[in-house]
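From the shared-data thread, chain only:
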Amino acid sequence: MQATQHGQYLIQLTRWWVFNCYFVREEDGLTLIDSGLPGSAKAIMTAAASLAAPIRRIALTHAHGDHVGSLDALAAALPKVEILFTARTARFLAGDLSLDADEPQAKLRGSFPRRQTQASRYLQPGERVGSLEVIAAPGHSPDQVAFFDRRDGTLIAGDAFQSQGGLAVAGTVRWLFPLPAMATWHKDLALQSARDLRQLNPSRLAVGHGSVIEQPQAMMDEAIGTAARGQAKSVALV
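Structure, as tokens:
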């Protein structure tokens, strides 16, 4: 697993070139955002040891398998760590794949593996996880949230965007790495979430798949425009 520092607070952890999770430095240690693919726990803990900082909390963006894969292993190895995810994510982790009545009734996509780990508390949009603000970002999945570090403007967007093969909104296919698009539940909602995240005016964009982007505003605008045109074309063809 490759560890790459971005700015003062963010450390990108990458496995198999395209699968990311992140450490965020806090005064008391590290917040881990997502738990990576199954089998990542040892490498994540080794990375934390190399930084000479304890993992204090684990927060999830959403319940897809490449983001929750090592949750149970990490929770078992780090029993004092705070575990944070939304109540919507908890239902997926428990095996409940039903949709709420007020959610678009589109087919779920991507893997939703069961996990035994229980949350220390459920996250709500607007709350803080250390220095990070929780931002609702559904679309790629119903439960997705992003995390915004107001200290330096870093946005950890989960799979609301991908940068592998070029920056794209969830649901827009990048043929060099089409998996995030193929795993996107609802494109219209994903586009709205992308627009909402752009309004935060982030100085740095960290995504689940691909490189971290500095000063991403123009690239986000272009990706949003491409997604909007693609969806308008799809509607016109119906």
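The chain has seven helices and 15 strands.
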